[in-house]
Write a structure and sequence with these properties.
Blueprint lengths: L1 H26 L5 H12 L4 H8 L3 H22 L1 H46 L1
C-alpha cells in the first residue's frame, strides 16, 4: 500500500505541474515579473526552492510563499475567465471532429472499392453475355 501512496503523490505532483504550466501559458503575462520568474524557474527549469532562494538571496520560505501566491493568482484567473477550460473543450471537440473525418474518409474509400468491384463484375458479365 505504501507504494500506491508514493505513486499517488507522484501522480498528483505531475498533475499539479501540468495544471500550473497550462495556467501559466494562458495567464503568465498577468503575474508580476518576480512571480513569473519563480514559476519559470521552479516549474520549467526544475530548480528547487533552495536553488531559487540562493539566486535571489531570499529564504526558501520566501520562494515558497511567492510560488503559492502566483499559483493562487493563476487559479483565480481561470475561475474568473475560464480560458483553459474553454480551450480544453474546444480541443476535445476538434479531436472528435478529426476522428469523424477519418471515419468518413474510410467509408468513402470502402464505397470507392465497392464501386470498382461492381464495375469489374459488370465488365465480366458483359464479356459473358
Amino acid at each position: 500500500m505504501a507504494g500506491n501512496r508514493g505513486s499517488e503523490n507522484k501522480d498528483e505532483r505531475i498533475q499539479k505541474f501540468l495544471e500550473i504550466n497550462l495556467l501559466y501559458d494562458f495567464y503568465g503575462k498577468l503575474l508580476t515579473k518576480r512571480q513569473s520568474e519563480f514559476i519559470e524557474l521552479y516549474y520549467n527549469h526544475d530548480l528547487s526552492l533552495g536553488e531559487i532562494a540562493e539566486q535571489y538571496s531570499i529564504s526558501r520560505q520566501g520562494v515558497y510563499d511567492i510560488l503559492k501566491r502566483a499559483e493562487k493568482i493563476l487559479e483565480n484567473y481561470e475561475k474568473k475567465l475560464g480560458l483553459v477550460e474553454k480551450f480544453q473543450l474546444q480541443k476535445q471537440k476538434l479531436s472528435k471532429l478529426y476522428k469523424m473525418l477519418i471515419k468518413l474518409q474510410n467509408v468513402i474509400e470502402e464505397k470507392e472499392k465497392a464501386l470498382e468491384e461492381i464495375s469489374r463484375i459488370k465488365e465480366y458479365l458483359e464479356e459473358v453475355i
